[in-house]
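thread: overnight batch results

M.L. [08:02]
morning all. the overnight job finished for the chain we discussed friday. pasting input first so we're all looking at the same thing
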Amino acid sequence: MYTVHAIRYATREGLRGQHFLGYDDTWAEPHPTAYYVWLAVSDTRAVVLDAGLEPDRAPAAIAFDCTPHEGVASLGVDPADVDTLVLSHLHYDHTGAAARFPAARRVVQRAERDYWTGPVAKRITREHWLRSESDLATVLAPDRLDLVDGEAEIAPGLSVHLVGGHTAGMQLTRVWTARGWVVLASDAIHFTENLEQDRPGPILHSMPGIYAAYDRIRELADSAELIVPGHDPQVMDRFPRVGPHAVRIA
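M.L. [08:03]
and the structure it wrote out:
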């Protein structure tokens, strides 16, 4: 059984049109976004879900509250003691601080690794802004890389599930807690509204994959309250605060 926290390390002001697919009359309305990493702790191990981004490598529009590893440390976990780093996908804002968890094995879907490093990767120019070559070199270093195919139990009470949609190898993390099964959806749903309104975001690899991911998220979580999106500022209001930049999900 795990205790699960969301750590908001940064925020950005945005517009609805940047976050939802398709034009409508609300396109120009303000729509803030938040940046998170997640920490799952049991009696025997500490697991971080996604590595986040560091200030010196971030776009100017992103305002930082702390660095991801500082956020983890603020909850009493030394980043050097984190034994597993699950990477939901390999976009730059989820891989940037991986080196701050030096002992952690990195869990990545093989489909995600192959998409970003395969023979046609350099030709997928529309997505090059989303990847960092230096991050990929760090995260995919073979000495600490655990490639998985589909669903895999990483440890008792913690598993990953390939869904695709947002990226070729997008994966969810499912965690057993005192409240039941929590699903850390990361960017499979950026905002709760994606799921509630059945409306994707504009950055996607496969439209059928997006909708299949929505269905799988609902199947894996014990309740809608235990589904945690990847960039929704409302996460900080839905769960009890345990620090200036962190909430306890379960």
